[in-house]
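Go through this pair.

…
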Amino acid sequence: MVIVAAISDSDQSREIAARADELARAFDDRLHLVHVTEETEYTRIVEKQSGTRETDTGSVEDNAAGRAAEGLDEVVSADYEVVGRVGNPGKKVVEYAAEVDARYIVIGGRSRSPVGKALFGSVTQSILLNADRPVVTLTTPE
């Protein structure tokens, strides 16, 4: 099976990757580090690159995923694959986990007040509500 870890450009990705690595090693599963580029960011990057989806080193989403995964090999000892997607992060992580039949999804989040959750959408909340498999959530204070 697969452990899916949702990573971003945040410092919390190190902790997410480390916890996902522990699970992958404990279950002898593969580890996939998934980074989702939001559509607006993707469009901005493509327009900046003269309208092409491909770069000299690969697709925009794969390059973004590779940048998000930089340095994570310091905390990951299992073999891993870096996966890039474009779209709504909550939706794309859940879709990818279903696609690879993930055992667990490992995500990060912030502890937020009920008002904060109501006013601002939460990728973490979206994944928790829509995933059809166990989700390990690592939180940091708001």
Summary: The helical segments are 12-27, 39-48, 60-69, 89-99, 114-119, 123-130.
